Amino acid sequence: MTMNWKRSVLGTAGLALSLGILGSSAHADDQEPKLLKPCEEANVSLHDLAIGGDGKGVKTYYQGNVLMVQIDQVEPAAMSSGVVILAMAPDSEMGERLCMAATNFSYLDLDKAKSFYDRGNGLTVSIPAMDYDGMGSVPGKPLIVKINLGKGEIAATR
Fold first, then answer.
1. Which of 49, 58, 82, 142 could link 103 by a cystine bridge, Cβ 3.0 to 4.6 Å?
2. In Å, how far are 20, 60, 64, 76, 119 from 84, measured between CA atoms?
3. More confident residue, 12 or 117
4. Rounded to 5 degrees, what are φ and ψ at 57?
5. What number of CA atoms fall less than 13 Å from residue 98's CA on the CB side?
């Protein structure tokens, strides 16, 4: 799924962590499951943040213009883990942020994420994931998040 906020600039009010108040018009193939959803659609709230006292569960990129935060939504218990991505709109005059969430993982380990930057394609972050197979947690394909602030795009694949 790719989100282009140059076509759909989203506004927020308050702090950078004002989660769950954004809408969006996502551009996705209807046959693919949506890995990224607007925070509001994913029912993400500040209560879901899974931030350790030592700063675990938080990553920043693009000189602080992109923030990733680990979440735990408690239910469904076997698939409560996820990540929220807050990205500053590139041409924002009012500080608009795009808030997207990837949810329903058995576990996402944001602290072990690997990232690299390519000038032409932007930032790629690979987040180790665990999936639920009906019996328990099993290693899954990583969540790959691609962010290109210059083009105003964000996408996720597995």
1. 82
2. 10, 12, 15, 17, 24
3. 117
4. 90, 10
5. 30
